[in-house]
Amino acid sequence: MALTESTMLELGTTAPDFALPDCVSGKTVTRDDFRGRKALLVLFICTHCPYVKHIEKGLSALGSDYAGKPIAIVAISSNDVTRTRRQPRRIEETG
Asked: How much is the pTM?
């Protein structure tokens, strides 16, 4: 993994707007879909990243633990869903 300086926003900063396709449903997901939640956790992942593979079950458990609570979680993948055919199935399997 290359060393890349972080450009993380300070906690409490409004997340930049985004509009990206959900690779399972095909619907467009935007930041405003999570309006009214106390917090939005945005994860930037890549399905072939060894670290993401290592914590995949933990990420699924995190989503389950916070389901129905006022905290939203969204994972933005750098993978191209049109080229990564297994990705939607894996997401459905892990939750």
From this structure: 0.69
